[in-house]
Amino acid sequence: MSLKRRYILFGSLFFLSYGLILFEVLRQNKWMFLVGEILLVGMIVLFAIFYRQLLKPIQTISSGISLLKEKNFSTYLQKVGQKEVDGIVEVYNQMVEELRQERVQKEERNHFLDLLLDASPVGIIILDLEERILQTNPAALQQLQVDDPLVLYGRMLRDLDHPLARKLAAINIPSSSLIQLDGMNIYQVHRRYFMDKGFRRAFYVVEELTREWVRFEKKSYEKVIRTMSHEVNNTVGSINSLLHSLTELHKDEDDEASRDIREALEASIERNSNLNHFMANYASVVKIPDPNLQQLDLNNLVDKVLVLFDNELRNRSVQVEKDLCRPKPEIKADRPQMEQVLVNVVKNSMEAMDGAGVLRIETSARPLRLRVMDNGRGLSPATKDKIFTPFYSDKKNGQGIGLTFIREVLTAHRFSFSLATNRDGWTEFLIHFD
Q1: SS3 category, 140
Q2: Distance, CA of 62 to chain centre
Q3: How far apart are CA 134 and CA 206, in angstroms?
Q4: Is 301 within 8 Å of 339 (Cβ atoms)?
Q5: Residue pLDDT, tens place only, 6-20
Q6: Which of 172, 266, 268, 345 is the most buried (most CB within 10 A)?
Q7: Class of domain 294-432
Q8: Is 3.30.70.360 the CATH number for 120-208?
Q9: What is the tens place of the pLDDT at every residue in 156-178?
Q10: Segments making up each domain of the chain, as ranges
C-alpha cells in the first residue's frame, strides 16, 4: 500500500472515531458538541495542509525517480514551497539538464561519426565480441565487392568468398600491414581495438593504395624508359650511320673477306633495328594518351575482337563460349584502347592453353562487368602476385608489355580489374566498369 493511501486511511479512521465520540457528546452536552465540531473542521483543514506538505514532496521525488528510470531527461520537477525539498528538486533539475546535454552531445557525436564513416574513402569494418561483422561503411562494401551490407552482418570474415576478407581474417592481433592481391590491388590494413560497455571489440581500417602505388610506379619507369630510349636511339643511330658507311665501302668488292664483312655489317644493322623495336615497345606504354571517352556497346566490342582471332582460334582448336547479356550493356570508354585491352586478354588466354581448350566470355549489366575465362595452365603461385608488376613476364623472351598496357589503360579509365586462377582451375580476367 502506498504512503498516500495509508495516510488517507489513517485520517479516515481518526475522523470516524472522533465523529462517534462527538455523537455521544451530543446526547450529554450540546455546547461541547459544537466546540467539538469546530475542532473537527480545524483538524480536517490541518490534515489537508499536512497532506500537501508531507505527501506532495514525496510524490514529486517519486515521479522524478520514475522519469530517471524511463531515461526521460526532458521533464523538470516543480518546486513545492519547502526549502529542504526545493533544494532536492533544484539538484535534480540540474542533474537532468546535464544528463540531457550529455545525451544530445552523444547523439550528435554518433551522428557525426556515422556521416564520417559513410563519407570516408577508407574502409571500416567493425566486429562484435564474437569476431562477427557488425558494421561496415560504403568504402568497405566496395572493397569487398558487396552491394547489400546485410549480406555481411553476422558473418565471419574467413567465411566470405573474397581474397581481401580472407587476408583480413588472418590478422588476429593489433597490427599494421600491407596486403597485395592478384599482383595489382594493394591495401594498407590496420587492426585495432576499442572499448564498448567494458568489453574490447576489434575493428579494421582498410586503405586502398592501388592508384597511388601505380602512379608512383609509372613515374619511376617512365623516367627510366625515356632515359634508356634517348641513350639507345642516339647510340644506335650513330652506330647504324657508321655501319651503313662501311657497307658502302665494301659494296663493290667481291672477294670472300668483303662478303664476310658485309654479312657482319648487315647482321649488326639488323640487330640494331631489333634493339630500336625492343625499346619502342617499352616507349609505347609510356606514350599511352588519355582516354577519349564515348558510349560503347560492350557486346559489340567483344564480337569485333573475336572476329580478329577467328582463324587462330580455329587452328588452335579452341572452343569459344559466349554469354552476352541482354539488353546490351553500355560502357563509357576509349574504343581503340579498350579493343587493344581485350585483344591482349584474349591473346593471353589462347597462349595459356596448350592445344585445345575452352575460352569463355561473359558480359553482365548489373553489375556492369566483363569476364574472360580459360581452362589453360593457370597462374603459378610464384606468378600470381607479380602478374601486374610493370614489364614482368613468365614467357620465354616475353617483355611483359601486354599486361602493363592493360593495367595502364584500365587504371586510366578507373575500372577495377583482377586476374586469378580459381579453385575450379579456370583462370579469370574480370573487369568491373561500375
Answers
A1: helix
A2: 50
A3: 16
A4: yes
A5: 667 777 777 677 677
A6: 345
A7: alpha beta
A8: no
A9: 998 888 888 888 988 888 888 88
A10: 3-92, 120-208, 213-286, 294-432
